[in-house]
Amino acid sequence: MSSSPALGMHRRRRIPLLTALIATGALIAAPLILASPAAAAASEITLADTEVSVGDTIAVDFATDRPSAKNWVAIYPESKPEPCDACGMAWAYAPGASGSVQLPTNDRAGNPLPAGSYRVEYLYNDGYTRVSAPAAFTIDGEPAGEDPYEGPDVDPTKPIDLSVVQLNVWGKTTDAAMLEEIGADLIFVEEAQRAASAVAKDLGFDHHSTGGSAGVISRYPIVDAGVVTVPGTQGGWMKAIVQVGDTQIAAYGGHLEYRYYATYLPRGYAGDVLAPGFPAEWRGWDKLNAPVADVPQILAANEASSRPAAAAALIADMAEERAAGRLTMMGADMNEPSVLDWTESTAHLYDHNGVVAPWQTTSILRDGGLVDAYRAMYPDPVTHPGFTWPAATPNVDVSQLAWAPEADERDRIDYVFFAPDDRLSLTGTRIVGPVGDVVRGTKAPPVSDEEIFTPLTLWTSDHKGLQADFVVCGEACQAAQEPGELVVGSPSITGTAKVGETVVAAPGEWTTGTAFTFQWLSDGQPIDGATSATLSIPSTLAGHALSVRVDGALDGYAPASATSAAVTVAGEEPVVPEPTVTLGATTVVAGGTLDVSGTGFAAGAELRLELHSTPVVLGTATASAAGEFSTTVRIPASVSAGAHTLVVVTPDGTPLRVALTVTATQGANADDLAQTGGELLVPAVWIALSALALGGLLLTRRRMRQQ
Fold it and tell me: Is 595 in contact with 669 (CB distance < 8 Å)?
């Protein structure tokens, strides 16, 4: 059997082996230890000054053993701990192994950075990997010779109009004249880069931008600014605190991730969905083998864009601003449709291919209490689709506008959202831009007659914009708007309250400038149509209580009303007919009778009947309740023949006269005949008697001859 080596032999063999390992380790470690100080020194940046004033330039010296033509240095705010896209400020390439770079302390748009803490990052080859540790510095003071922007003079006690415009400017410097024509006060721009500062300068407005995609331009002063940097945004939400009168508005401009454009999937196109776990053909922008109708899968691709996360971060930041007493609103190109647009009513329109999609980003904004300004005014996505992309931009070939040339890719992806507040009122919205759209690679007319305002200035974006008009009424305005109390007068009715008469409402003494309306009342109830200051009293109001209610109104005062005392309406006085007398005959023989009647006398009136000219009382009569009488009188035989007058005398002595002719009586005496012209009667009688005697004589003579 074998045996083990002696213990001494093991120890002797271990010593040379351990020595060899130590020596080898020393040989390997020595160059690294010696090289450490040199490596640290080989990649570093140093600043000529660690404290500078606003608007100054800072000198950056760099050295590295990892040179690249596209190594670069950039200024970052100390609040952003890691280098990131679009959250840096001024930058410059730092090529070669060493050198010096002059960096202006500006943002990407060229505006001086405000006082605060910053650092310079030294980054590798157009990326965000650090070449060396950053170098910190501070900015103190305000830029020399630059006055703060003051904005327009406003009266905080009055409502202030605020027109808000959201527009993707497509990387171009949009003509400021176009925004003036639209009438914008607060402008959210995307794909702006240097356009934000350039347009603001041309307009004479204030602005906030880091030189990246999004920016905020304001007619009113921006008193504070920042960036809400989250995934899913291109450079973060640009947050500007805008002072409008005595009210501050936290205004957020954003441009969300354009890739992961999941709205293309139901239309049969890839939307450049890059995350792992999705079909490879969804990468890029090519046409798919078939439309995707799996809603959970579509929403999963959309979630991977981080746009919903950006919306959640916005809601959280807005909540803090509202807690601080500010209004909040946002304008953004969100590169995502609305949950309010892809509904059952549109499932088979615009190549939705039956898909009803609760898009997450707008759902989060809605559930977070924000209001979609366009849908608040126009809730029906069929009658008012509100398409903003792609626009039929004039003077631009359609090949530059359509990304899915065989699909109907129209969508509403540009928005203005706001948080409801009693200091902020939405008064109207409209689409601004070209009237037409792009459908299946062709410019096409709109599908509805919704309002689209097209400026005369040439349109230079592939998007349409959105304009939302608001009225801001802050604390001072609301206090001024609280109604005062009117001095209320005591109304009265002037004129005679009688059927057929016109009466007038007198309001009494009210606060100067008060406007009045009127309502006439019968027994306290409104009279239909009786609403003017005057009233012609109809017979139906006879005996009723008439009054008038006066309502007063004056801007700045609570309306008030007062009612006059009631008056009783008198009825019409009966029309008393003129008394009339009627004779049974107009000629009567002296000594004969005459029928006399009359009407229109006072009821029960005692009447006296006389014959004139020398008054002779013929008798009396009493009028009936109807004012009538009828009687027979005798004409005295002694009354001379000729023209006379019958007179009826009323109780108050008023005479009523009727002409009457009296003729002589038969067998009147000589005196009477003489009075009536009887002197012609005697000769006539003698002639008649003579003729009679002559006739008798002739008759007797004839008879004698016959015998």
Answer: no
> What would the pLDDT profile of 159-187 be if each residue is shown by its tens digit?
999 999 999 999 776 678 889 999 999 99
User: What does DSSP assign to residue 47?
Assistant: E
Spatial distance between the Cα atoms of 550 and 563, rounded to a whole number of angstroms: 6
Which ranges of 360-469 does DSSP label H, i.e. alpha helix?
360-367, 373-377
67-77 tens-digit pLDDT: 999 999 999 88
Q: What is the pLDDT of residues 349-377, one digit of tens each?
A: 999 999 999 999 999 999 999 999 999 99
How does pLDDT run across 181-205, given as a tens digit for each residue? 999 999 999 998 778 888 999 999 9
User: Count of alpha carbons within 13 Å of 509, Cβ hemisphere only?
Assistant: 0
Q: Are 520 and 527 in contact (CB under 8 A)?
A: yes
| Cα 311 to Cα 254: distance, rounded to the nearest angstrom | 10
The two three-digit tokens of residue 336, written as one number = 């995502």
Which amino acid would we find at residue 75? I
- Assess contact for 466 and 168: CB atoms under 8 A: no
CA-wise closest residue to 197 among 208, 186, 185, 184: 208
The answer to whether 340 touches 385, Cβ cutoff 8 Å, is no
**Side-chain-facing half-sphere of 520: CA atoms under 13 Å:** 26
Residues β-bridged to residue 587 = 661
CB 83 within 8 A of CB 76: yes
Q: How far apart are the first and last CA of the chain?
A: 240
How many residues are there in the chain? 707
To 10 degrees, the CA torsion angle through 148, 152, 153, 157? -110
Give the chain's mean pLDDT.
87
Whether the CB-CB separation of 433 and 347 falls below 8 Å is answered with no
Q: If we measure between CA atoms, which residue out of 328, 306, 329, 139 comes closest to residue 236?
A: 306
Which of 176, 165, 162, 173 minimizes the C-alpha distance to 242? 162
Burial class of residue 537 in the structure, from the number of CB atoms within 10 Å of its CB (0-12 exposed, 13-18 middle, 19+ buried): buried
154 three-class SS: coil
Which band of pLDDT confidence, cut at 50, 70 and 90, is reported for residue 704? low
Cα separation, 251 vs 238, in Å, equals 8
CB 170 within 8 Å of CB 458 = no
- State the pLDDT confidence band at 400, using cuts at 50, 70 and 90: very high
CA distance 278 to 265: 12
CB 228 within 8 A of CB 317: yes
Strand order in the sheet with 72-77: 51-53, 135-140, 116-123, 72-77, 91-93
Sheet holding 587-589, edge to edge: 587-589, 655-663, 642-649, 606-612, 616-622
pLDDT bucket at 659, cuts 50 / 70 / 90: very high
**The 3-state secondary structure of 475-527, one letter per residue:** HHHHHHHCCEECCCCCCEEECCCECCCEEEEECCCCCCCCEEEEEEEECCEEC
Which residue has 């990052």 as its token pair?
121
- Looking at residue 673, its pLDDT comes to 35
Check: CB of residue 84 under 8 Å from CB of residue 114: no
Is residue 388 within 8 A of residue 466, CB to CB? The reply is: yes
- Residue whose token pair is 């100054």: 56
DSSP-based three-state secondary structure for 153: coil
Pairing relation of β-strands 557-558 and 484-485? parallel
* pLDDT above 50 for 610: yes
Gyration radius of the chain over CA positions:
57
- Give the Cα separation of 571 and 496 in Å (integer): 11
